[in-house]
Amino acid sequence: MQDTESVPPSPNAPLSAPAALAAPDPHALWKPRVNPWLIAMTVALAAFMEVLDTSIANVALPHIAGSLGASVNEGTWVLTSYLVTNAIVLPMGGWISSMMGRRNFFVLCIVIFTIASFLCGAAPTLPMLLLFRIIQGAGGGGMQPMAQAIMADSFEPQKRGQAFALYGLVAVLAPSIGPTLGGWITDNFSWRWIFFINIPVGILAFFLVTRLVEDPPWIRAERASLRQMDYIGFGFLTLAMGGLQIMLDKGEENDWFASGFIRLFAVLFVVGIIGLIVWELRRKDPLINIKLFGFKNFAICCFLMALVGGVLNANTVLQPQFMQELLGYNATTAGLALTAGGLALVFVMPMAGYATGKIAARYLAMTGFTLLVLTFRYAAQITNLDMTFAAASWLRVIQMLPLPFCFISITTAAYVGMPREQSNQVAGLINFVRNIGGSILIAVTDAQVTSRSLWHQQHLQAAMVPASSAFQQHVQTMSGFFDGHFGPANGTAMALALVYNQLNLQAQAQGYQDVYMELSWASMILIGLAFMLSKNKPSAGASSSAMH
User: Fold this and answer.
1) Which positions of the chain have pLDDT values less than 50?
2) What are the φ/ψ torsions at residue 547 (nearest 5 degrees)?
C-alpha cells in the first residue's frame, strides 16, 4: 500500500498538503551548464577547508597559548569562539542565501574565511586572535550547508547518493586528519601556518566557484528581505547557541553544574532555544523554518544525523586521547593511527554512494548502525593498556566502515519529499544538528570517561588492603627490586606508588571500555529509529517524493 509524505509548496505552507496534489515543478528539467562532478569537487574543496579548521587547531593550543602569553585554559577559547559563531551561522544559511543568492553567499563565505585565516595567523595577541576566529567561524558556518545544497540541486535525485559520498568524505575525513596535520605543522613549522594554509586553498576555491557554480532558477536573490530580517529570531539563536557551545566546551574544566558560570550559560541556552522555537513557529518569514521538523522523515533524519555526527566526533577524540594519556604516544603519532581509517573511507564512501541509488535509505542506515554496534563492542574488547599501534590503526578502520552507510543514507533521506526550494534550509539544518550532536557527544563521552574511571578506581582500591595476599605479594616483589637500587627505606614507598599508578591507568582504560559499550547500546536504539524512516524508491527519478 502506497502513502505519500506531505510536501509543502513553500516554507510556510500547511504541513498537511499532500505531495500528490502539489503542482509540477516547472524547473524540473534544469541542469547546470557544467559537469555536476566539477561543481561537486569545487564546493567539496571549500567545505573540506572549513571542516578541517574545526579540528586542526586542537593540538596546537598549548603552543598558541605559550606564544601569546596566555594560559592553556585561556587558549581553549580559540576553539570555543570559532564553534559559537559557526553554530549560529549554520542554520541561517537558508535565509541568507535567499536574500543574496546561494552562489553569492557561498563566495562571500569563502572570502571571509580566507581573509580571517590570514588575520588569525598574523594575530599578535590572544584577544585579537579570538576576534579573528569569531569572524572565521562566521564565514565557515555557511560553507558546509551551501556546499551540500549545491550538490543536491546539481544532481538528479537518484544520483544524489554518489554526490553525497563525496561530501561525506569531506565531513568524515577532515576531522580525522585535522589533529594529525595540525600537530605536524606545529611541530615542524609554527602554529600560525595552521591558519596560513587556508589562504591558497581559499583563493583556488574562490576562482573555481565564481566560474563553475550557478544558482538554479528557483533560487532568487531577494535583497529587500534584509530590511525584514528576523532580528528577534537571530537574537534567540545567538543566545541559544552561544550558551550551548560555551557550556559544552567549558563544562569539564569548571566542574559542570557545580559552577555558577556553567549554570548561567545553561539557562541562556534553555531560554534561547525555547524562545527561538516559539518565535519562529509564529513568524511568517522565519530565519529558520522549524516547521520542517513537522515532517516525520526529516525529523528522524535530523535526530539520526545528530547521533552520527556525535559518534564521528567522539570516536575522533576518544581514541587519540586514550593513546596519548594512557599509552604515551605524542599527538602526531596518535593522529597517524587515524590515517588508516581515512584511507578506508576513500574506498567505502563511493560504494555507499552507489548503494543509495539501489537500496532504500532506511535499510542502508540500519545496516550502518548494526555495524556500529559491533565495532563499538570490538573497541571495548581491544582498548586496553597492551594495545599496539597496529591494533589502534585497525580499530580506526573498522570504526570508519559503517559511517558512510549511515551518513550518506540519512543525508539522502533528509531530502526525500522536500521541494527543491527547501534544499538550502534542509542542508543548513542537517549540518547544524550534525555539528551540535558532535559537540554534545564529545562533552558527554569525555565526562563519562572521567566518571566511569573514578568508579573503577574506587572498586580497584577496595582490593588494595593488607588482607589481600595478591596485593601484598605484588608489593613485596616490586619492593625487592627497588630495595636493590634505592635502598630499603625507599623501596616500599616506590612500590606502592607504582601500584597506585598502575591502578589509575587500569581504571582509566576500563572507563574508556565502558563508554564504548554505552555507545554500542545507543547504536542499537538507532537501528529502530532508522527503520521508522519512510522507504524511498532509489530509482524514482525526478520524483524524489516517491515513497512507500
Assistant:
1) 1-27, 541-548
2) -150, 160
